[in-house]
Every structure is written in structure tokens, then in C-alpha cells.
Design a protein that fits this description.
Blueprint (H helix, E strand, L loop, with lengths): L3 H20 L12 E5 L22 H19 L27 E5 L3 E6 L4 E7 L16 E7 L2 E7 L17 E10 L2 E9 L8 E10 L14 E3 L5 E3 L5
Parallel strand pairs: 4-5
Antiparallel strand pairs: 1-2, 1-9, 2-3, 3-4, 5-6, 6-7, 7-8, 8-9, 10-11
Length: about 250
């Protein structure tokens, strides 16, 4: 038997639960499950505009670096149009690194989530990065430069906030140069049960006039098994002028 006081408390809790359910604001007590493979979710025919990624911010370098960057991009575009693309990390069998590895063509990425760590594996080139949860970030100058840097994350409600420093200067997004002071912040969240967004913000006080902000959208791939992708000595090579060529197979 409940006392009158006990019944009053129970009734209050029940009403509170109904109110939360009515407005859709019931607090979540579970950590979002990011486990599994995720493929790119792009706009276009059949895509739900509510879940497609918003437009990226413009890339604005500081004046002293902008001209050289624009010339570099123009030269790369012209070379590709001639059928003589300039070498990329992929052509050289070098890892794309972070953040480019998070979106390479149509290849998926896989999240492997535990309470203390989240590993992200890209199917393209089998690249792996590790996000350490509940650990403090180190000063950038104490992190040995690498292809993926050092990433630490924390949960802010339903959003995984990831801070990354220590990216090698030859690992670039959109061939944008950067310094050892570059910092990348991600906000990763489920915008629907099977739709994931990763908002990426790149900051660099040396090269960038303003941060680069863009969002990657993914859809969950049910029961998908990641395929091994190894970059070995294939038919592509870089000639003495830095142009990617194709080897001719011997008959």
C-alpha cells in the first residue's frame, strides 16, 4: 500500500514523464550508439533534405597565402582535365590522413565504440584513427606529428565533441596549407536513428583568415562488412615532372 505522500510523489513523477513525452524533451540516459558501418549520404534525387549536409563555408586563407593556394588548385584542375593529374596521397600510396579520410569517394567508414575509446576505420586504404574518451588533450607542440594526430573526445548530451591536434603539415584538406597550430573540432551526432552528421571545424591562426566549417552526412549500412583495401605497387607512377602516369602491362 502506498501512503498518501507516496501516491503524491508517484503521481508527480508520472505527470512529469507524460509532459516530457508530450514535448519530446525527455532527457536521454544512454550514450548514442555509433557502432557499425556508415556510407556517404549525399543530396540529390531521393535524398531527404532534412538530413543532407548543409553547405560548407568558403575557404579563406590569409592574404599572403591565398594567391599561391589558388594557383596550386588551378594547376591541379588543369592537369586533371588534360588527363595528367598531379600526384595525390592516394596515387602515391600514402595515407590521406585526417580529416580527408572521413570522406573518400563512396567508401564507407566504420565506428567501433567502447566506453573509453572510439576507433574510426575508413574502407579506403584501411585507415584507422583513435578517439580517446575522458582524457585531456595535450598541448599541440607535445604531440608528435602524424597522419591522424591525437584525438580526444567527450559527450555533450547526444553529441560527441572531438578535439584533434598534431596533424603532419603534408596532410592537407583541399590542399590547404596549415601550421603545427592547426586544431580540428568535430561535433558528431545522430540526426535520425540511421543518419549521422560529422560537423568539422578547421582552425589555424597562421594560415586561415577564418575557420573552415563543413559537415559530412552518413547513412547506416545495415549488416555491412568492411572490405580490405590495401594500396600496393599498382600501375600508377609519378614521372620526373610530377605527373601521374600509368604503367603499360607487359604482354
Amino acid at each position: 500500500m502506498f501512503s498518501i505522500k507516496g501516491r503524491s510523489v508517484l503521481l508527480f513523477l508520472m505527470c512529469l514523464g507524460v509532459a516530457y513525452a508530450a514535448v519530446g524533451q525527455a532527457p536521454s540516459t544512454t550514450t548514442p550508439d555509433l557502432n557499425g558501418a556508415w556510407g556517404p549520404y549525399r543530396g540529390g534525387r531521393g535524398a531527404d533534405p532534412r538530413f543532407t549536409a548543409p553547405p560548407a563555408s568558403p575557404i579563406v586563407l590569409k592574404a599572403q597565402y591565398a594567391k599561391a593556394w589558388e594557383e596550386r588548385r588551378a594547376a591541379a584542375t588543369a592537369a586533371t582535365q588534360r588527363g595528367e593529374p598531379l600526384p595525390t596521397n592516394g596515387a602515391l600510396c600514402v595515407p590521406y590522413g585526417f580529416p580527408t579520410m572521413m570522406s573518400v569517394a563512396v567508401y564507407p567508414v566504420e565506428f567501433v565504440q567502447t566506453a573509453k575509446q572510439i576507433n574510426v576505420i575508413s574502407e579506403a586504404f584501411s585507415e584507422v584513427r583513435r578517439i580517446y574518451l575522458g582524457k585531456p588533450q595535450l598541448p599541440a607542440d607535445e604531440v608528435p606529428p602524424g597522419y591522424y594526430g591525437r584525438s580526444v573526445g567527450r559527450w555533450e548530451g547526444d553529441t560527441l565533441v572531438v578535439d584533434t591536434v598534431g596533424i603532419r603539415e603534408n596532410v592537407q584538406y583541399q590542399v590547404v596549407p596549415h601550421s603545427d597550430q592547426m586544431r580540428i573540432t568535430e561535433r558528431i551526432r545522430l540526426v535520425a536513428p540511421n543518419i549521422l552528421h560529422d560537423q568539422i571545424t578547421i582552425e589555424d591562426p597562421v594560415y586561415l583568415e577564418k575557420p573552415i566549417v563543413y559537415t559530412l552526412a552518413y547513412q547506416r549500412l545495415q549488416n555491412y562488412e568492411m572490405v580490405e583495401f590495401v594500396c600496393d605497387n599498382n600501375r600508377e607512377f609519378v614521372d620526373e615532372k610530377g605527373v601521374v602516369r600509368m604503367k603499360v602491362r607487359e604482354k
